[in-house]
């Protein structure tokens, strides 16, 4: 540890009792035993410990140790990646997105519980996910009264710190000082004998909690130092297809305004992460919408431009997911947008109470959809995990309008993203209001299944797959039912692709 | 109309301005035009109009009229039945359970939107289900200030009355006077420019609303009179199988108490309707649980016995579903249990905010489950609608513990209710904590999919289907994945049954 690093750290550890708690990452890792459960900060690569996991991975490799790793959401190569590569993970929850870990999960080497992101804290509170042995939390600073100031995410850190037997703080001296004041930490009471309060978010921009995570000082075993910068995500520049999807989604929202169901302020907006979400945000900068509130899980690059453009007036989420360009200017951006951006625990951003109350408009990406509006968000071919359901289920069930977006085809057009029967259902059609592809949008509200199949095929399916989709429902309808299907052909498009390299039933590519 | 009926009615119409509004059912029906949307009271056969629908069905038959019928939930033969038999229904939502209507739905003659029961009111509020032309509401009385006192359900009546252009009251003179005071009508504000309040239910037994439904007097077009009694549901006496399921479910709850995750007061309880729910309630009367609060959708017969036994101290729901025996004593029961039973609008009983806050334990019946814990609640063979999802999704997503119950087999043992892949997913495994059959229970919490398959097969599948289930997952596991499947065999059990009269792959019965 460089003496310079330690010097910088001491000025950020403003709670005097903690200043002698600095230890090396290796020493902190040595406290971890086989079978322990760790609660780590981190969400979409932001706010995760960046030094401790490497030390733990080394120890795990040397001593054949496996641990359970609970987080906010996905972690990067220096956390999930290095742990997976060293076979250090027994059980992982509630979300991941790392290629090395994905491989471990799909081979059955690592167990993975793919959870609604608002559920984890409640399950920990109820005691059904076991005890948390160590919480490992990245911090930007420690306040005079011992509060941990998180960095670029809050995630599940508050519940980890509350319930863990021991806490390790990874103090990141390179984290912008302006992170302090951006967090709004509110922890619901345990369920039990005492009545619980309402979650007091009525206006998304209200502050309801503290600027940091309160911790029992006796539980803090050590402070590890880091100077690694925030981890950027890929920059998702719109391409022709994602731009069309964004245009179609915006056309739907404009129609809602036109018909008087929404105003130009829309309703609090949640958007998933990725290229379509980014294209929609870019599109909004040029739209007639204004004074929008964002009530999301993750804030991407576009959010700052939208605030500048007057389109967004306030944004709440639990984490950043920023490209290298925005990471570079983060310190000044945090200063500039102070009071317009806030980070809450994920159980609050994704809380069914808040989502239903404020009437969120939610849009998330589907891996595949079916002609009746069911959505697969997670499993390739119904078997192999891609990332996870994330918070999409928290929003989809309780939102005012639930939208799923996908390109109509994948793999150069050989796969139709809209199939007769999805191979895994994450969102049943009861929860799905609108489906958007680059072909158009299908508004499923107020429609029965046979009508839904019709408008999804007409508006969203790629032209090359329309005929075989119509043939399927024509023959299925002859057999009757509320949701006509031919079970023996439900997955025939997938099977044809596996055998012949295309879902086009009239073609064989192999 | 008998003069005696009218005389009785006048004493119940305590709002003087309404006393000259009495009309015949035929006259009221004559106001209904083709294509109109009607919002009717009624939930699990309780509280529905019993005279108006017959008159409407007659008119529909004579004039080839079709209407959209929105309700709380299921209606009986004199409402859904007679309307369906006369081809009077264009679109029906959000739930039904009538054999004649089911036939119309599955043939495609009537359109049916199977909705989460807390969603309908919000969708009406947002304007996406069109305008309500007439609300038709069964009443036990009309108060001095013009409030409609509902009968055995509240359902969606408050939102129908608020949003309808016209209101028809069907005053039921035979409804017990003691219905007055049992309702607690609270209507959330519209979403829009103004901030919404919290739903102020913290303790389930708190009263939050009015005793009746407030109505703009100018909208009340007419009052139809009825003296038909409440409609009883079948009496579900426990049999050997349902008793075993109940015992297994109670064993799970006892384990939760033993492990300190619940106390003997459990947590507010929601139970579905039917034989298993009734067997569980009967079993509870002899259990060590006490002072339980019921936070349910429907109250069945057993609830009164449980209050007598000191097991239940308070029960809130939106409707009764009672057998003939309990209907016979309803007037005195309502008096006796006043202050211990309350009926709220279904958007409040099923509100995600309330369910998450109080931490409901939810149990509902599955039509089929799969080895990974996905639940089909609605579609036979993935195609034909049975009843609907009802409120199970409102509870399952947001409850503290979500339990699904089913017998392990059906059709005399030829069908396994637990299959490799359900033919329709209403509840994705993210929402399912525990599955119970007469064989045992499987606690899925904190388990990954491969483990889930193991314990469901071990604990819940019928012995005669265990071997073929194990063979399926063994071969599926070889192909890898988070959720191993063989897509070409996913529905093979269903297909074998269709061809050979049994799901046992080694047998052929036809």
UniProtKB/TrEMBL annotation, chains A, B:
Molecular-function annotations in GO: hydrolase activity
Domain Acetyl-CoA hydrolase/transferase N-terminal: 16-190
SUPFAM superfamilies (alphabetical): NagB/RpiA/CoA transferase-like
Top-level taxon in the UniProt lineage: Bacteria
Domain Acetyl-CoA hydrolase/transferase C-terminal: 334-470
Pfam families attached to this UniProt entry: AcetylCoA_hyd_C (PF13336), AcetylCoA_hydro (PF02550)
InterPro entries associated with the record: AcetylCoA_hyd_C (IPR026888), AcetylCoA_hyd_C_sf (IPR038460), ActCoA_hydro (IPR046433), ActCoA_hydro_N (IPR003702), NagB/RpiA_transferase-like (IPR037171), Succinate_CoA_transferase (IPR017821)
Keywords per UniProt: Hydrolase
UniProt record similarity statement: Belongs to the acetyl-CoA hydrolase/transferase family.
Protein name per the record: Acetyl-CoA hydrolase/transferase family protein
Annotated source species: Wohlfahrtiimonas larvae
């Amino acid at each position: 540890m460089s003496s310079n690093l330690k010097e910088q750290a001491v000025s950020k550890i403003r709670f005097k009792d903690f200043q002698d708690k600095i230890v090396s990452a290796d020493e902190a890792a040595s406290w971890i035993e086989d079978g322990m459960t760790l609660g780590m900060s981190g969400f979409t690569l932001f706010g995760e410990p960046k030094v401790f996991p490497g030390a733990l991975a080394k120890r795990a490799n040397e001593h054949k140790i496996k641990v359970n790793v609970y987080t906010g959401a996905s972690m990067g190569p220096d956390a999930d990646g290095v742990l997976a590569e060293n076979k250090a993970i027994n059980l992982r929850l509630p979300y991941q997105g790392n290629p090395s870990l994905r491989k471990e999960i799909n081979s059955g080497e690592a167990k993975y519980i793919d959870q609604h992101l608002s559920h984890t804290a409640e399950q920990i509170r109820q005691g059904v996910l076991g005890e948390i042995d160590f919480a490992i939390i990245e911090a930007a600073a420690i306040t005079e009264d011992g509060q941990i100031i998180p960095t670029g995410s809050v995630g599940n850190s508050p519940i980890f710190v509350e319930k863990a037997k021991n806490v390790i703080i990874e103090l990141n001296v390179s984290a912008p000082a302006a992170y302090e004041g951006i967090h709004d930490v509110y922890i619901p009471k345990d369920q039990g004998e005492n009545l619980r309060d309402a979650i007091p978010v009525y206006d998304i921009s209200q502050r309801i909690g503290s600027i940091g995570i309160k911790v029992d000082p006796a539980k803090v075993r050590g402070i590890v130092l880091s100077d690694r910068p925030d981890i950027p995500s890929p920059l998702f520049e719109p391409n022709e297809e994602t731009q069309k999807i964004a245009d179609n989604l915006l056309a739907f929202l404009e129609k809602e305004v036109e018909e008087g169901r929404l105003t130009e302020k829309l309703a609090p907006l949640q958007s998933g992460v990725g290229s379509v979400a980014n294209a929609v945000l870019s599109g909004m900068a040029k739209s007639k919408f204004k004074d929008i509130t964002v009530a999301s899980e993750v804030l991407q690059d576009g959010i700052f431009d939208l605030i500048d453009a007057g389109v967004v007036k306030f944004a709440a989420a639990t984490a950043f997911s920023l490209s290298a360009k925005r990471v570079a200017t983060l310190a000044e951006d945090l200063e500039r947008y102070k009071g317009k951006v806030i980070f809450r625990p994920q159980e609050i951003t994704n809380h069914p109470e808040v989502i239903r109350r404020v009437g969120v408009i939610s849009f998330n990406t589907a891996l595949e959809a079916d002609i009746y509006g069911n959505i697969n968000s997670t499993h390739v071919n119904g078997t192999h995990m891609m990332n996870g359901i994330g918070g999409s289920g928290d929003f989809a069930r309780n939102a005012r309008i639930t939208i799923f977006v996908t390109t109509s085809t994948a793999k150069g057009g050989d796969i139709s993203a809209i199939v007769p029967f999805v191979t895994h259902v994450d969102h049943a059609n009861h929860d799905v209001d609108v489906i958007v592809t680059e072909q158009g949008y299908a508004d499923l509200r107020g429609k029965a299944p046979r009508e839904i199949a019709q408008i999804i095929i007409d508006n969203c399916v790629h032209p090359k797959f329309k005929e075989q989709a119509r043939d399927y429902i024509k023959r299925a309808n002859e057999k009757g039912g509320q949701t006509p299907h031919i079970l023996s052909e439900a997955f025939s498009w997938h099977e044809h692709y596996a055998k012949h390299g295309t879902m086009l039933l009239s073609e064989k590519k192999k």
